[in-house]
Amino acid sequence: MIEFKNVSLTYPNGHQGLKNINVKINPGEFIVVVGLSGAGKSTFIRSINQLVKPTDGELLIDGKNTLAYKERELKNLRKNIGMIFQNYNLVNRMSVLRNVLTGRLGHMGTLKSLLGLFSQEDKELAISNLQRVGIEEKAYVRADQLSGGQQQRVSIARALTQKPKYILADEPVASLDPPTSHVVMRDLKKINQELGITTIVNLHFIDMAMEYADRIIGMRAGEIVFDGPVSTVNEKTFEQIYGRPIKEADMRGSVDDE
Ligand SMILES: Nc1ncnc2c1ncn2[C@@H]1O[C@H](COP(=O)(O)OP(=O)(O)OP(=O)(O)O)[C@@H](O)[C@H]1O
Fold first, then answer.
1. Residue ID of nearest Cα to ligand 1 atom 31
2. Fewer CB in a 10 Å sphere around the end CB: N or C, the chain?
């Protein structure tokens, strides 16, 4: 369980990225965080693994206040949290398999990780995760030879290879076309359902949020302005979250739109 208690984050330039956030994220949930650009979605999600560090409040993960963590405890925390970025963050000149194996680095000693000495078990795990996202035939191809959608699936396989308890995905489909966006979202949802990994995804597309979320958190100007199950969400909810009428550009479009 992740719990934000009166969490605020003020950036060094004085900008308030998060304002007094109070929210609980339960085990196994699939949450989509929505809001306009600049609403604080990335700041919210990145606080959880402290890519950005809140300046006030308590952020409890499995009952412990992670904001008090020192380097070693933080490293242990990050081992359990897979992160998926908009731009995939793969090492281009390495093979797909090697990229996926880097998911094991947090679990290995320094020497083994420096030498890249992965066990047979790790390799099997990496391959099985590539199978899970349907691209095992690309295991020995260089990462930069893959399409954007394939690269994002590699990054999902890498996150899974960490054997994470939580997955954070920061705008995972923002660089993808509509059909590929759905493939990636379906993969994330399937993993959440089959493996029970708590998943938090930032999206700014309303239709995708409605299609995949169990629960939607709406943000505006660093605050949570909506939090509820997807069944309670309608167009009005999004208008409230966005503070303006919905536009066509707020939709990703369906699989048939290409
Ligand atoms: N390092 C930083 N220093 C100062 N302000 C920042 C920093 N990072 C983000 N911000 C500001 O904090 C606010 C929230 O940004 P954040 O990236 O969390 O929003 P977002 O909802 O994820 O939007 P986007 O989809 O555009 O990334 C924005 O106004 C942004 O300009």
1. 38
2. C
